[in-house]
Structure formats: structure tokens, C-alpha cells
Specification:
- The protein is of the alpha/beta class.
- The chain contains 16 helices and 18 strands.
- It has a 7-stranded mixed beta sheet with strand order 10-13-14-9-8-15-16, with helices on both faces.
Length: 459
Amino acid sequence: MPSEMDLEGLLARQRAYFVSGKTCPVSFRRRQLERLSALLQEWEPQLLSALSEDLGKAPFESYATEIGLLQGEIRTALRSLRSWTAPQRVPGPILQFPSKGWRYPEPKGCVLIVSPWNYPVQLTLAPLISAIAAGCCAILSLPPDAPRTSAVLAKMLQGGYPQEYIAARMGNIPANTVLFSLPFDHIFFTGSPRVGKIVLAAAAENLTPVTLELGGKSPCIVMADADIRLAARRIVWGKCLNAGQTCVAPDYVLVQKEGKDALVRAMALEFHRIYPGGIAANPDYPRIVNEKHFTRLRGLMEGEKLLFGGFCDPDSGKIELTALDSPGPDSPVMREEIFGPILPVIAVADFEEAARFVSARPKPLACYLFTGSIRWGRKAMQRLSYGGGCLNDTVVHLTSPRLPFGGVGNSGMGACHGKAGFDTFTHWKSVLERSPRIDLPVRYPPYGERLSLLKKLMR
């Protein structure tokens, strides 16, 4: 583990590299993005193998949710970099005539990226792509709970970039405590609200701006007019992706009571259709990351009424999709983010009851609505506050680099992906350009009787 002096020295070296101006040219940024794309392709077999060892992910799921998404982010950045980095002209105020305004994008500088274990490749490198595009240097804190993947990422990045530009370190608690205290120009943290508060408090000591990608209990509302079979398929897929260890996985379902039984039957059928023959030996069904989380998830089922599922296999570390029947609002499974394949199903009378239920809780990172009526979709957009979501699907809003991804309130602050990610690591410097040939005297004392003229000019 690097000592405190090692981390301070590393940041100092990165600061010197950034101040040299080497990271600023668009041509440099393009080469580094192209380099990252090539590294991902070169190290793909090792990354897929490591993800399988750490999380039991099938190669298809790992590529779809991690490496493939990153290659898409890189392509978007390469296509758009010239326009993203162009100064933006804005008209000047009439009081300063003749003048014109400019917004100049400049990189914030040296940034810290702290990533979680559940999508250790995507959630490490997606913000790095944005930081590279913005012209920043970066230190990456890799998740120790995905040790094999973190080790591969560290080797890949160490061989691909100089440490004074991009450096990766294992993010255990002592190292992160030191990193959070250092004067970075931006911190990008993905993890739990509990640790997010620690990051925010530490960053405040240096007035460091922070992006927090947190979690929360993301609701899924199913109206009676929805296509129940399609809703079941997409809810099951979204909940079983990475065995439910996804920050935007459906955390609980609110379904109109007349459709509850049909939805539960359809979800049970869909789960067994997708994962036939049981989960223990199924290579397409991921496992829980470690014994601690396995035990925690099993504890959330205790004392609850099961609608289907409930099988837990300690040998493989897998838990099958388990639906719970209307757990109490104060039960442990409804107080904390589940982060596993457990899905409470709660009957509601109508959309209004569902909206009250969601609004009475901390703002979620995602929200999903299944309905056959666009009216209910618009209603949800107006009534409910959440980071992002889908109408008639789950999770897939994250796949578009054109849709900013981020939370609100308890689920986070700031955004990433595409242009939003570039803006996160960019300071937009505002400059008013005045002509030296004309200097209107109205602003200079003595003011005399100019107040009425000033009011007209400032309308």
C-alpha cells in the first residue's frame, strides 16, 4: 500500500505534468482516448476472466455492461471532442456595447476517481474517459472487493500511461482516507450514500468539487394497463443483471392490485425460462460478490412472506430471484438498498398511491414505469423526482452516452456520460471581450441625471 507521502508525491507529480500544458491539446486527448480503446481490446480476455472470477459474470454480460459500453463512450468522445472543446460565443449586454462574450472550456486539473466493485471496469473507466476528454490528469482508486479485476486494471493502465498522467491504486480504507484529504481539483465518487457523506465532508476541507454517484431504492411502478408479460420479462432481466448488484436495479415493485397476481406469476415463469435448471451451475447467472453480502441478503429475507424463490447456495455464492409479498415499510428490506436479487412486490390502488409511496422516501437514483398509456408516463415525469429512468423498461437508460446519468438528493449529485461527463471535469471560463475604440461615459461618475438612461439600458 502506498504511504501518505507516496500519494502526496504522486499528486504533486501529476500537478507538475498538468501545469506543463501537455494534456490540453485536443490532439493529445484524442491519442489518449484511442490508446484506451486499444488497451481495452488488448486486455479484453484478462478483464472478462477477472470479472468471471470476482462476480461470476458471463462473458456476454461483462462485455454488454462493461467493455462494450466503454468502447461506445470512447467513440462518442472522439466524434464530439472538437465541438466539446470549442469556445462558445454569447452576445454581450447592451450596457457594455460594443462587446461579445465567450465561454472557454478548460480542464479542471488533477482529479480523483473512486470506483465500486459491482461494475469495476465500467465505473472506473467511464469517468476516466470523461477526464481524458476534458484534458485532466487522474488518480484512480480501484475497488478491493473486486481484487482480480482491480489487479488487471492496474496492470493495464500502468503499462498504457505514465504515472504522472494516469495512475491507479488499490482503494482500501487507509489509502482512500489519505486521498480524500488531498487537494484534488475534482473528486468523482461512485458508491454508497454512507461513504458519499464521508467523501463530501473530506472534500469540503479543500473546497474540492465533488460528483457523487450513489444508490438508493429505485421503484418500479406497474400499472394495470401495462403489458404484464413484457413488464415481467424486463423487470426480471433488470433485477437479475449482475445478480441485482446494480445501483439502478429495480429495488421494489409497486403494482396496481388487480394486476399483482398476474405479474408475480409472469415474473416467476420468466425467471425459470431465462435461467433453466437452477442457478447453482448456471454460467449466465452471476454470484454475490462475497460472503458478507451473501449473509446480509439472506438476512433480509428472514421473517418475510415469499411469493417465489428463496433458494440460497453458499457453495456457489448464488441467490435466486426472490419476490417478497408486501413487506412492512419499516422492515429492513424496505429501509436499505437491497443490492441483490430480492424484490419486494407491493400492491397499490392506483398511480396516486404509488406516487405518494415513492415521494415519501429519499429521492431514488432510478424510477421505472410500465404502462400502456403515455398519460401515466407524463404524470410520472411531472410528479416524481429521481435521477433517471425508463418508460416500459429497466436499467437500459444507462446505455446511451447522450443521456446524462446522475442522482438527485440522497442518490447523488452531478452527472456523467458523454457531454455531461466532459462538463463534469471542465471549468467553463467566462470572458467579456470589449472594444478599445468606444468607451461610453454613462458608467463613470459624476452620474448627474443619468439614472433614467441607465434603467433603459439595463432592461
